[in-house]
Specification:
The chain contains two helices and 18 strands. It is mainly β. Strands 1, 2, 4, 5, 7, 11, 12, 14, 15, 16 and 18 form an eleven-stranded antiparallel sheet that branches.
């Protein structure tokens, strides 16, 4: 049996109950709930390729000076150890915001596209349902990019590992859909927000301005990514209306702060 069999079915059922239980409690400001306490990784679960779920291998994710950092100073080589830090609860209707900035250099043996590249995943499968060597969760990614000095490289795109989406009533199956955001220097703090309304609509915002909008996120039924095919066989619905949020670590050091979520009515 694949790692997505009985475990996946259980997690889907568990996720449904968790959605309506509300987010993890934190300090609230105008309804916004703090998901990162600035002290430790409470409320979050790491999953790094090649390591068991819950193991923060080589301290990839750490908290220093109130900032959640993706760091590779304990790595000799990257060797495909893609990582994600998952919220402990899934969410359906919400606004999620944080600030990010890049720092340092990418791992020398990581793929070239990793340079000044990170992001957050939404509507993600649970970390417990990932295969041991699975690099990316089936999800939709709000991609973070920064200037490489080679021309425009806008942030705020959407990437679709194992998923598809719709725009203006048309099915979109390409892996990356570009936003209208500007290009930012690597060392600049950038404010992002993503508004998620279940399966209805997703909106990307950068520094308060809308840069991308799409509808009906869904699993890819063609099975172009093996992990999405496994989820479908395990009984996952094609239309994605909820899922986990995950911060990405794919070979480039990056910092996150002011991580907050605002629940929305359905």
């Amino acid at each position: 049996m694949t790692p997505f069999g009985k475990t996946a079915r259980f997690l889907f059922a568990l996720s449904l109950s968790a959605i309506f239980a509300g987010p993890v409690s934190g300090e609230e400001e105008d309804g916004w709930i703090t998901l990162f306490n600035g002290k430790d990784l409470s409320g979050w679960t790491p999953k790094i390729t090649g390591f068991p779920c819950g193991e923060n291998a080589l301290e990839t994710f750490r908290v220093e000076d109130g900032i959640l950092k993706v760091s590779y100073d304990h790595y000799e080589k990257f060797e495909g150890h893609y990582g994600h830090l998952y919220s402990n609860l899934p969410y359906s209707h919400y606004r999620f915001r944080l600030e990010y900035r890049f720092t340092g250099k990418m791992m020398s043996d990581a793929p070239h596209y990793v340079n000044l590249n990170s992001g957050i995943m939404i509507h993600s499968q649970s970390p417990q349902s990932l295969g041991l060597d699975q690099a990316f969760p089936v999800s939709l990614e709000f991609q973070f990019l920064a200037d490489e000095g080679k021309g425009e490289r806008q942030t705020g795109n959407v990437c679709t590992p194992g998923t598809n989406l719709e725009m203006d009533g048309e099915l979109v199956t390409q892996h990356i859909v570009e936003s209208t955001a500007p290009t930012f220097p690597a060392d600049e703090w950038v404010k992002i927000e993503i508004e998620v309304r279940g399966n209805e609509e997703v909106i990307h915002r950068v520094n308060g301005k809308e840069v991308l909008r799409y509808q009906h996120p869904q699993l890819d039924p063609e099975g172009r990514v093996e992990s999405s095919e496994a989820l479908i066989k395990a009984g996952a619905p094609l239309q994605l209306s909820y899922g986990f949020i995950a911060l990405q670590a794919e070979g480039q050091p990056v910092w996150f702060r002011n991580i907050q979520l605002l629940p929305l009515d359905e």
